[in-house]
């Protein structure tokens, strides 16, 4: 199962070659779907605002429109570089359950590529989970686990939040693990996100200890920016490849935010909570140009005019599903993010 083979006279992203070579390029994305709820109540979950009698007056028409909107974006992600192919893997957050995921991948744009999903029902009280969508043409999952977020303080014994969906598999012939996260919201203090990021780092370390050549991607809605304590200290996600040591990770979004670009807007300012972070096994360090295995090539915030509010008080913000209780028939309050990996074709 090979990705689209691209012939490049390589002058892209620091790769140089004296002669034409062929490379396989893979798009890896993340998208916060902003409350993809079905219309049915899940026992034990506080999903009442997404029922017909709830505050959002959620019904089949709104749900079906949400599915169509989300599938449109997911299918277009990665097509700037991989036309008609898109992403091989997309982590998602704020999806209610396996039923809504099945409805999502059944939408024509995703069904045309035979998209599948990995999901484990989590403990979140509202019922929102993370999942990994994948194109089986390129990725074959071999193991799927949900690792719980574990409170550390006795006073937090009742603190229940989303765990860390971890999917191992093969991409381009390389072993890869993807950890999809949705760290505690900003309604909680930084401590809770720092603790979550520390647990993700320990999980990443344990995966690599067991399999030293394993490539690991941590992605998700971190509810923090790249330079915040959870990312920079707890996860040890560094600003530049030069800074990355064996136990660190590389966070390409740090410089992106410093350059004035983000995936969400709040009070007129950008944040970049939607991050895809790479272990050293996915990097070329010390000036090497070795693409015999999967390596980081570039990254982008995926945006289209239709994803952005074009008028009114929130002009320039991501066009969301609801605003002030009014159904906008939009997409999400987040923009998707993508990294591209490259490997020399054999």
Fold topology:
Layout: E1 5-8, E2 21-36, H1 60-76, E3 89-95, H2 98-105, H3 108-111, E4 116-119, E5 129-134, E6 139-147, E7 164-171, E8 174-182, H4 190-210, E9 215-221, H5 229-234, E10 237-238, E11 249-250, H6 253-258, E12 264-266, E13 269-271, E14 274-278, E15 295-301, E16 322-323, E17 326-327, E18 337-344
Parallel strand pairs: 2-3, 8-9, 10-11
Antiparallel strand pairs: 1-2, 2-18, 3-5, 4-5, 6-7, 7-8, 9-14, 12-13, 15-18, 16-17
Concise overview:
The chain is α+β, with helices and mostly antiparallel strands and 346 residues long.
- Taking the alpha carbons of the first and last residues, their distance comes to 13 Å
Radius of gyration: 19 Å
Q: What portion of the residues fall into strands of 2 or more residues?
A: 25-35%
Largest sheet: 7 strands, mixed
Q: Note the run of SSEs as H and E.
A: EEHEHHEEEEEHEHEEHEEEEEEE
From the spread of the alpha carbons, the general shape counts as: globular
Q: From the helix content, strand content and strand pairing, which structural class follows? A: alpha+beta
Mean pLDDT: 93
Q: Can you count the beta strands?
A: 18
With helices defined by DSSP (H or I, 4 residues minimum), what is the helix count?
6
The percentage helix is: 10-25%
Uncertain runs = 5-14
Provide structural commentary.
The chain has about 350 residues and is of the alpha+beta class. Helix content is about 20%, strand content about 30%. The protein is built from 6 helices and 18 strands. It has helices at about 60-75, 100-105, 110, 190-210, 230-235, 255-260, and strands at about 5-10, 20-35, 90-95, 115-120, 130-135, 140-145, 165-170, 175-180, 215-220, 235-240, 250, 265, 270, 275-280, 295-300, 320-325, 325, 335-345. The strands form 5 sheets. Strands 1, 2, 3, 4, 5, 15 and 18 form a 7-stranded mixed β-sheet that branches. A 5-stranded mixed β-sheet has the order 6-7-8-9-14, covered by helices on one side. The protein has a two-stranded parallel sheet with strand order 10-11. The two termini are about 15 Å apart. About 45% of the residues are buried. Mean pLDDT is about 95; it is low at about 5-15.
């Amino acid at each position: 199962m090979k990705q689209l083979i691209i012939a490049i006279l390589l002058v892209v992203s620091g790769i140089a070659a004296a002669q034409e070579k062929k490379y396989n390029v893979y798009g890896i994305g993340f998208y916060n779907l902003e409350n993809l709820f079905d219309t049915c109540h899940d026992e034990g979950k506080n999903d009442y605002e997404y029922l017909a009698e709830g505050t959002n007056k959620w019904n089949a028409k709104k749900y079906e429109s949400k599915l169509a909107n989300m599938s449109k974006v997911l299918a277009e992600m990665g097509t700037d570089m991989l036309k008609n192919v898109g992403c091989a893997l997309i982590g998602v957050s704020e999806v209610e359950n396996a039923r809504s995921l099945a409805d999502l991948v059944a939408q024509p744009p995703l069904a045309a590529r035979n998209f599948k999903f990995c999901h484990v029902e989590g403990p979140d009280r509202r019922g929102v989970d993370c999942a990994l969508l994948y194109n089986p043409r390129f990725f074959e999952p071999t193991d799927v686990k949900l690792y719980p977020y574990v409170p550390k303080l006795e006073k937090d014994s009742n603190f229940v939040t989303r765990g860390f969906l971890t999917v191992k598999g093969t991409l381009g012939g390389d072993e890869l693990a993807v950890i999809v996260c949705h760290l505690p919201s900003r309604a909680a203090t930084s401590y809770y996100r720092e603790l979550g990021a520390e647990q993700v780092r320990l999980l990443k370390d344990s995966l690599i200890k067991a399999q030293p050549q394993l490539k690991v991607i941590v992605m998700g809605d971190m509810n923090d920016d790249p330079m915040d304590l959870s990312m920079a200290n707890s996860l040890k996600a560094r600003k530049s490849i030069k800074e990355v040591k064996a136990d660190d990770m590389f966070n390409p979004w740090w410089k992106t935010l410093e350059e004035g670009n983000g995936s969400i807007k709040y009070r007129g300012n950008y944040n970049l909570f939607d991050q895809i972070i790479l272990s050293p096994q996915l990097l070329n360090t010390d000036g090497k140009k070795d693409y015999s295995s999967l390596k980081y090539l570039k990254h982008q915030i995926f945006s289209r005019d239709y994803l952005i509010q074009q008028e009114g008080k929130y002009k320039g913000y991501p066009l969301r599903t609801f605003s002030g209780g009014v159904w906008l028939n939009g997409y999400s309050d987040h923009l998707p993010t993508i990294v591209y990996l490259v490997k020399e074709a054999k």
